[in-house]
Amino acid sequence: MIWPQRAGAQYGPGPRARPGIGSDPGRVLDIAHSCQRRHRECGAGTVLGLGIGIVVIMATMSLLLLSQAAVAASRAAAAADLAALAAADAARGITAGEPCAVARDVAARNNARLTSCLKGAGETVQVGTEVTTVPLLGPARGLARAGPPPALDGGPAPARDGGPAP
To answer: What are the residue ranges spanned by the domains of the chain?
Structure first.
């Protein structure tokens, strides 16, 4: 490299040049060897950066799996709620069909599988559903029970059409 000429300046980098850099253009610096000689920790930043990057990626993947599990649990619970309500309506005669068959159909429409359907006392129905999303997490399960509203003051349950109870 040719250095600019100034009044009183010499040709080249001058006497303050570090030995090995610019003073001998034919000399090739062995960076790895000089790094090992001067610092025993050369490359430690790279390893540390890779380690931190792997930890961040693992934490992100864990959060994604947990969020998928939460979504699957919510879907299973919603499917169970809807299936139980539909089955309770069928048990009370409000809609046509056998309660467990209606619950199975509603669960299938919500991408869930009906795992249990129990008819209880007083036209109540308890329904269990299962939603499978990620094989690693296993299935999410939902459970719901539905039936007619409870009787007020210990009397009979309200009539289906909203009129007075018989």
So the answer is: 31-146
